[in-house]
Structure formats: structure tokens, C-alpha cells
Design a protein that fits this description.
alpha+beta; Aminopeptidase; 2 domains; 13-stranded mixed β-sheet; 12 helices
Length: about 375
């Protein structure tokens, strides 16, 4: 058999289409798989997104006897290198057929060589350029629907990296909170009359203004999370833009003291079934579905909570979370989620458990030194 790794120019429309569509072909028949939206992926990989503008991106496809069996993107996020981990690149947008150990080895070798040639000495994978983009292979719950916006991946993916000496350095946890458990009910009662800050929902009328507030809060409170590099107001407005028409204001709560923003809580509904039906394309039918069905969901979860240092330890984080969970309860939900939580973030894990959250390691991100 003849194995060939092909480098694809991100500006080549035909090559980019080949790269993007390959994952759907390889995952055909997998009932839990959800395709990313082609236009979003194309915009990011071609450098037309504000998030990816200035990043160096190399695309690779591996073929055996003329049949494409795997792909990945090598990504250098200069902002991440500057503020987080010097000399560290990413390998993301990974997809591969089952039983393709040799082909994956050749694919990864090409991506690693590309990164090393540009001065990188370490690789984090799988990660699509750093937060807030997708990262991690699923390591549990393969027969479950993933919680939107997180991906589904097959059980044979983690061994592909492990066989190539990638270390499981960054485990990501997933907490489920039963909204009828005693710890949750006790916290709900305790913080029902919390008056340490004014907590309000996001404003649809002043959407961009509130997005900039949220961006500033994220940049300040998430700075110690390994995967997070600060984002500009413009980047976050672009990122949150598509959510405006589908996200209820109650899913994002902002806390203020004397008009000063001091904390936030950000949640999303589970739109996995809806996005699976799009099969990578958002046309008029998909837009109609979003407008008419996005408010109908069976799950929801908190993606992030942040509080300024001087307001920590005063119950504000719990008050914010309980405000969001109360909204989920008002919709008839019996459970909600808190995810993803870095295994190393003891405070966040303790926070989830203090509300009765039951956790499990759901995703795994790896790294490898290549110097």
C-alpha cells in the first residue's frame, strides 16, 4: 500500500473543501457524531476569522492508495505563545479512519515537522488553536450525545496519540448537577436573597456592549487557565455574534457593584440534535430551525463562571450560578451541567461538588515535547 501525506494550502478553496468534508466521510454511520459548520471551519482555517487572523496554519491530509484516511491542522497561535507557553504549537482539526495507525503516524509526523520547522518545541493536541475553540478527545460517554458545543469523537482516537508518545497532560471534567439534590437546595435557599452585587441577565438591546464586558471579565478571571489567552473585544463580538438570535438573556448573568462589572456566569442550551441535523451546512432551512427550535432543549450547562479576585469568597460565584440554574429549573429541567473543568482547577471542581455536582473525566488533551 502507498501512503502519502499531502500539505494543503489554506487559501486553496478546493483543497480546503477536501480537508473540511473529510471528517464527515470518515464519521459516516456514527450516530453520535456532529459535524462542525463548514463555513465556520473554512473561515477559521483560511485566516478570515478575527480569532485566527495572524495565526500560522498548515493543513495535512494522509491517503492510502488514493483514499483519504486522515487529516489534521498544525496551528501556531502567536498570542498563546506570547502570554502562555512559549514555543508551543497546536495540532487540531484531527480526523482519522479506524485501523489507520501507520497513516496517522505519518500524518502527525508531517504536522510535527512543520511546527518544529517554525521553531516550536512542544505540541498540544488535539486543540483547534486554543480556547474558546474545540479541544480534546472524548474518553468517556461514547454512547451518549455530547453536550453542545462540545464534539463527539470515537474511542480509537486517544490510542492514536498515545502510541506516538503524547502525554495525557490536560484532563477536562464534566459535572452533572441534579437540581433536586440536598446540597443544591441548601445553596439555593442560602443565596436566595444574596445582596452582595446586582445580578442581571445579558441585554439583547445592548448586546455588543455586554459582550465587551464579558470579554473583559474573561480576560481577567480566566488568565490562569492553561488554554486561555486574552481576546480582543472585536474577536469576542465576532465569536458571540451568532449566539444573539438563539441564546436567552438569562443564560448569561452579569454581576455589578456600584455599576462596576465584577463577575459573570455563561451557560448554553444543548443544541446538539439541532446542529447534527445541519450536517455541516447552515442554509435557510437551518436558520429557520434555529429561530423556531433553539428555545426547545432538554439539557443546558454552565460553560464558565468568573469573579474578580476582590469579590471571591463572598458567595458571588454561587449566586451567579444559582441564578442560571434557577432559569434552567423554570424551563422544567431536572438536571444541569457545569463543564468543562480543568482537572487541575481544584477550586472549580470543589465549587461544582459543593452544589452536589457529580463529575467524570470526559475529554483529554495531550502534549508532547519535540525539541
Amino acid at each position: 500500500m502507498s501512503t502519502i501525506v499531502t500539505a494543503i494550502d489554506p487559501t486553496d478553496k478546493a483543497g480546503l473543501k477536501r480537508f473540511i468534508s473529510l471528517e464527515r466521510k470518515l464519521m459516516k454511520g456514527q450516530p453520535k457524531y456532529i459535524s462542525e459548520i463548514d463555513d465556520d471551519v473554512s473561515k477559521f482555517l483560511s485566516g478570515k476569522s478575527l480569532m485566527s487572523k495572524g495565526m500560522d496554519i498548515g493543513l495535512f491530509v494522509v491517503s492510502t492508495d488514493g483514499v483519504d484516511v486522515g487529516r489534521c491542522a498544525a496551528i501556531i497561535n502567536k498570542k498563546f505563545i506570547t502570554v502562555k507557553q512559549p514555543g508551543t504549537g497546536f495540532i487540531g482539526y484531527f480526523a482519522a479512519a479506524k485501523g489507520a495507525e501507520n497513516e496517522v503516524a505519518a500524518l502527525m509526523e508531517s504536522a510535527e515537522a512543520w511546527l518544529k520547522g517554525k521553531g516550536m518545541t512542544k505540541i498540544i493536541a488535539p486543540a483547534n488553536g486554543g480556547a474558546p475553540n474545540s479541544m480534546g478527545f472524548l474518553v468517556a460517554g461514547f454512547d451518549e450525545d455530547p453536550m453542545f458545543p462540545f464534539p463527539w469523537s470515537p474511542a480509537y482516537y486517544p490510542p492514536y496519540l498515545e502510541q506516538l508518545a503524547y502525554e495525557p497532560t490536560y484532563p477536562l471534567w464534566y459535572y452533572e448537577v441534579d437540581l433536586s439534590n440536598d446540597k443544591y437546595k441548601a445553596a439555593k435557599s442560602k443565596y436566595a436573597s444574596f445582596d452582595g452585587a446586582v445580578i442581571r441577565p445579558f441585554s439583547k438591546k445592548n448586546w455588543n456592549k455586554d459582550v465587551t464586558i464579558l470579554a473583559d471579565m474573561l480576560n481577567t478571571t480566566f488568565i490562569n487557565e492553561w488554554e486561555f489567552a486574552p481576546a480582543s473585544h472585536e474577536e469576542m463580538i465576532e465569536f458571540f455574534g451568532p449566539m444573539k438570535m438563539i441564546l436567552a438573556p438569562e443564560q448569561i448573568q452579569l454581576a455589578e457593584v456600584d455599576g462596576k462589572p465584577v463577575g459573570f456566569c455563561f451557560a448554553v442550551p444543548d443544541l446538539t440534535p439541532l446542529f447534527r441535523s445541519f450536517n455541516g451546512s447552515v442554509g435557510l432551512t437551518a436558520i429557520f430551525k434555529l429561530l423556531t427550535r433553539a428555545s426547545k432543549f432538554n439539557r443546558a450547562g454552565i460553560l464558565g463562571i468568573g469573579v474578580l479576585d476582590e469579590y471571591k469568597g463572598k458567595g458571588l460565584a454561587k449566586a451567579l450560578a444559582l441564578k442560571v440554574y434557577a432559569y434552567h429549573e423554570s424551563l422544567g429541567l431536572k438536571k444541569s451541567l457545569y463543564l468543562p473543568v480543568n482537572e487541575s482547577n481544584v477550586d472549580s471542581r470543589g465549587f461544582a461538588e459543593s452544589l452536589g455536582g457529580v463529575g467524570r473525566r470526559m475529554y483529554q488533551v495531550y502534549d508532547k515535547v519535540i525539541s
